């Protein structure tokens, strides 16, 4: 028996929550399909094979691709996964479903607003545009609805996190002496660093970018809004990754046929991500002038520390898989690998996602190293890197586990599991072709974020092969990835259209070899870890932000120290106070 | 077969990055391989794998896919 498994599927246990998770998953898959299509179109455009739009509009492709995949697809899926994890492990439904549907509505509404605004950029007749890329750096400016949509989406995700906390608080009142169940612990620690980190982008959007796009203020301090973006921008990577980690910890051992090697180690990993994921964002700004090298060095050290939880995860997950394989009769130093359930797309997808993540870790170390980063900064290398992290470790894990979740949420059998296996393998092969070529192109200095990467009178010199070969490799990879996405969507649709069956496995997650009773109590002290996380953020960001503001002002060099309407409000307030003082006297 | 069809598919998939990365490694060792040569290398590797998978196990070991799934 697995933990959390009372009886029946998740749909039997929590029908209302299953409906909500289905909605989040379907929203996620819709974004995946459109985002993947944009990915294929931009690859074909960039290598000049198929150009449906002029190059001036290329950023609209890129923005739609990025926003739909790295925000909408991932976050809609992960709120569903965490809702599953919290309800299953606490064995209780959510506290107030009206509240739950409210955060879903905020996220869906926000996505639609942002998406429609970006799509508007393709049509001259529609006065909307948001070709500002996923990072929306000023002075690129989007229509206000884009920023408002993003703000609603992020607020919705905060409310989701609060929803999980409400469940835990209610459970804790009834079980005061119990340890926090592992999936809930993972959801709560992730929520904490997500709220801390996304405060940066929330301030950037609400205080600066929305008033700027509405014309209330003339300009913004580009370095300040950029730094606030990266305050959130690296932690969001872990927001995508943590649910994938959770699935590797609580699902992969179960699918492998064994138990999680160590619950305490898993808790340590999530605590480390809580305290370290935010004070690292400036490593995306190594080449930004205006931030002193010393601050960048501190951030590089913090970033390198983040390798520790990833290495701990690699150890724990592989140890758990080995335990499972040996339970299934596997023997030998490496012979146990053959006993794993490779025919199961849920297992194979997750295992290959983990393998690709190891490669991503190596290229990530290059990005994080301050001096080596200069070599690859803003090149295709970086794009190759994050297609291995969010594009494979996260996306492939999410797609693979869909083949486990979908029957749990619908009561229906997966339409064709063999096709599912082909789908995850196709993703793995496609990403191998694409990310390998992108990394190599980056080493040759080929830039990212441009529709026209070639320069007249200059040829890039790759270490191996030619630029044409690299482009061909990217096209092959991108095409395979799109085919894989179409297969995935087809399997999902056909499964939903199928009939309910009674032979599905019960809901649950992996038991542990070393359980929570072996973990020090202090690991469950969320206040302590959140406090340390905030202290580290203050240490990493207080001086750089103070320096940026003192040199460039809140609203940029040459701008008014405060927007005109603020001056007016302050003047009016002062006048009222003076009048009142006069009356009192 | 010495390996399940699903397992065989996974091993072939895992060979793709190996072949692609090998080409770059060979360049650094002074061996330039064209795309056709790389494709040939991949075909030979996959062919060898298929031959191994289909050939009878003359050592009389247990079928490797027993116990998987």
What can you see in these coordinates?
The complex is a heterodimer of chains A (585) and B (69). With 585 residues, chain A is mostly helical. Chain A has a single domain (17-554), classed as Cytochrome C Oxidase, Chain A, CATH 1.20.210.10. Helix content of chain A is 69%, strand content 0%. Chain A has helices at residues 10-13, 15-46, 58-90, 97-120, 144-174, 182-213, 222-233, 235-250, 252-256, 263-276, 293-305, 307-327, 345-368, 370-376, 380-410, 417-443, 467-497, 526-552, 564-584. The N and C termini of chain A lie far apart (78 Å). Chain B has 69 residues and is mostly helical. Chain B has a domain at 21-52. Chain B has helices at residues 5-28, 35-54. In chain B, helix 1 packs antiparallel against helix 2. The longest helix of chain B is centred in the first third of the chain and has 24 residues, at 5-28. Chain B starts with a helix and ends in a 15-residue tail after the last helix.
Descriptors:
heterodimer, A: about 575 residues, mainly alpha, Cytochrome C Oxidase, Chain A, 19 helices, globular, B: about 70 residues, 2 helices, about 0% strand
Strands of chain A, count? 0
How many runs of DSSP E, i.e. beta strands of chain B? 0
Distance between the termini of chain A: 78 Å
Architecture (CATH level 2) name of chain A: Up-down Bundle
Low-confidence stretches of chain B: none
What global shape of chain A is seen?
globular
Low-confidence stretches of chain A: none
The level of helicity of chain B is: 55-70%
Shape of chain B: elongated
The helix content of chain A, as a percent range, equals 55-70%
CATH class of chain A: Mainly Alpha
Number of domains of chain A: 1
Quote the average pLDDT of chain A.
94
Radius of gyration of chain B from the CA trace? Answer: 15 Å
Rg of chain A (CA only): 24 Å
The fraction of residues assigned to DSSP E strands of chain A is under 5%
Largest sheet of chain B: none
